[in-house]
Write a structure and sequence with these properties.
Elements: H1 2-16, H2 23-26, E1 32-38, E2 47-53, H3 56-66, E3 80-86, E4 89-97, E5 105-110, E6 113-118, H4 121-132
Antiparallel strand pairs: 1-2, 1-3, 3-4, 4-5, 5-6
């Protein structure tokens, strides 16, 4: 009985890691996103480029990338930050790490909880393309 209960709890924990965070719906009404790119070494000390997206398709694409499988990496460092706006008011801030292969993630705080979601290779390509423009 103890083994069954332990197995059930382990499965419940793993299933909860894949629950939607709600971030995509939360930022769905954003009219722009400001993206700060840092040096790329995991520290937040120097902004090397700022990109502002106002195209709703790009804004929603970026929000979709953030609503991904949850991870447990929480000490990965930061390569940049996203700031979703609606009528010049910040709706949500999201940090990201894309320059360390074993630790590519988005991180944000929502509903009293810290979330870490996978930053896919597609998301990295999207962000890298914006950084190189």
């Amino acid at each position: 009985m103890k083994k069954i209960l332990t197995a059930f709890l382990a499965l419940a924990f793993l299933a909860s890691c894949n629950d939607a965070t709600g971030i995509k719906d939360f930022v769905a009404g954003s009219d722009s996103v400001a993206i700060n790119f840092y040096k790329g070494d995991g520290s937040m000390d120097a902004v090397v480029k700022v990109v502002v997206l106002r195209d709703s398709v790009q804004v929603n694409t970026l929000a979709g990338f953030i609503e991904a499988k949850q991870t447990h990496h929480n000490k990965c460092g930061v390569d940049g930050s996203l700031h979703f706006f609606k009528r010049d008011v910040v709706l949500k801030d999201v940090d990201f790490r894309m320059d360390e292969a074993g630790c590519m993630q988005f991180s944000f705080f929502m509903n009293g909880k810290s979330y870490y979601t996978e930053l896919s290779t597609k998301a990295k390509g999207f962000l890298s393309g914006l950084k190189s423009k």
